[in-house]
Amino acid sequence: MKKERGKKKVVDEVKEEEDPPRSAEEAKQAQLIKDITSRCQMYNDDADSTHNFWVTQPMERLSDIQDLSLEDGPIVVTRSEVKQDPYALPSNYEWIDCDLNCDDMSSQVAVMLTQNFTARGYMLRETYSKDFLRWALQPPNYYASWHFGVCVKRSKKLVAFIGGVPSRIRVRGNKEVVNMAAVKILCVHEKLRSQKLGALMMREMNRRVQSQNIWQGIFASGVIVPTPISTYTYWTRILNVKKLLAFGVWMSQSPDGKDMSVETAEKLYKVPGKMVTPGFRKMLPSDVSAVTQLIGQYLSQFEVAEYFTSEQVQHFLLPRQGVIDSYVVVNAVTSSVSDFCSFYTFYYSCESQKEPVKFAYSFYNIATTMPLVQLMMDALAMAKKEKFDTFAAADIMENGIFLEKLKFEATPNRKHLYLYNQRLKTGVKASNVGVVLI
Ligand SMILES: CC(C)(COP(=O)(O)OP(=O)(O)OC[C@H]1O[C@@H](n2cnc3c(N)ncnc32)[C@H](O)[C@@H]1OP(=O)(O)O)[C@@H](O)C(=O)NCCC(=O)NCCS
């Protein structure tokens, strides 16, 4: 009887909730039910019954979300013994550890990803480099065993790759940060898709993660599986009108869909030739401590956020040519670092063009002494100066403040954010996500 009460659907509770709430406790409960209901409606694609792989994993299901007796926190609490041996692969394949310090191996991974990540037929194809992989996948205390793939036994050709890093994520309600595996890259050769290789790699990654006594994870994906905690949209902002037009990757249209001449478009997307903020300069090694403090304080306002140590700031945020650009604003009188912005570089190849399209992806931005719009206008100006063609940003954190104002346009590219083995019943709004999953 008690169990049945626990399983009562939120939707039924909503029907019973006819009177307006009277006490603060009742108002809180009504809000909880409203949040849960809207999350369920958003992801209601019968996820619980159609996902053969994901239903075997400790992920929140729609039915669990509606069960008011289940609390936020780990989904599976009892830690079973970790399987010692790798999962079995089909007989003509074998697992391969991908040592990204080895030039030959990191090139193989970069080539495999570049050739297979984007499906054929897309105008822009993701291009991976050794430097990017090392930045994304080798932060301090990374586990080399979390970078692995599948190769053909006979030829040793790499046909699949998965890469993750240890991450410390603060989840709403948790006073402590949670040690998680952030899975950043997963790719299976185009010709081997839908044969359960991807699922096998995720299982094997999980085994390797648990071997390090880590039981939670975080990842983002373009597909819906049970059940996202948040969904965000990428927006892009044109920087190089002429090149994008010449490459045929952009039609000369204004944000409201009207055709424009090249001159009008150039005028519309013009950015200042120099920075307007005094004290705006490239981040230096000596800024690491100040930036660690700034970013720690800033991210504490979001419900799900990365927790950066100074070593991670040094790794992820110090500028690296062709990979990550970071800028600080320094107060002329006190010499203190007050504001920060950053973007990472991602290249896309374009069919029949030799030159790639250069994207700046917004990373972390913190404005404490000026409007965020001003800081980001300087970031755009810097990106233009550094010959980026497009600036992209997801509508997470406070990015929504500047996107429309600075002429970004929403794209169809949406990503869903997931926590593995971590329940968060009401999910979070994109503007409450404080982690950028590369
Ligand atoms: C994503 C990818 C690796 C899946 O590999 P695959 O071998 O075709 O997949 P499988 O046949 O093993 O089935 C995959 C399972 O994972 C799910 N899945 C597919 N894409 C996924 C993703 N991006 N994240 C998480 N799960 C995913 C599928 O829904 C399926 O689970 P289900 O049966 O419970 O629904 C493959 O499609 C790919 O390489 N895509 C291009 C790169 C990419 O988009 N990578 C993901 C983002 S980093």
At CATH level 2, the architecture of the largest domain is: 3-Layer(aba) Sandwich
CATH level-3 fold name of the largest domain: Aminopeptidase
* Pattern of helices and strands: HHHHHEHEHEEEHEEHHEHEHEEEHEEE
Largest sheet: 15 strands, mixed
Rg over alpha carbons: 23 Å
Q: Taking all residues together, what is the mean pLDDT?
A: 92
Extended strand count = 15
The helix tally amounts to 13
Please give the domain count: 3
Q: In one word, what is the shape? A: globular
By CATH reckoning, the class of the largest domain would read Alpha Beta
Helix content range = 25-40%
Organism: Brassica carinata
Domain Glycylpeptide N-tetradecanoyltransferase C-terminal: 258-435
Family: Belongs to the NMT family.
Transmembrane segments: 213-235
Describe the SSE topology.
Elements: H1 2-6, H2 10-16, H3 24-42, H4 47-50, H5 62-65, E1 93-97, H6 103-116, E2 124-127, H7 130-137, E3 147-152, E4 158-171, E5 178-188, H8 197-211, E6 216-221, E7 230-238, H9 241-246, H10 262-268, E8 280-282, H11 288-299, E9 304-306, H12 310-317, E10 324-330, E11 337-350, E12 357-362, H13 372-385, E13 390-394, E14 409-420, E15 433-434
Parallel strand pairs: 5-6, 9-15, 12-13
Antiparallel strand pairs: 1-3, 2-11, 3-4, 4-5, 4-9, 6-14, 7-13, 7-14, 8-10, 10-11, 11-12
Helix pairs in contact: 2-3, 11-12
Domain Glycylpeptide N-tetradecanoyltransferase C-terminal: 258-435
EC number: 2.3.1.97
Organism: Brassica carinata
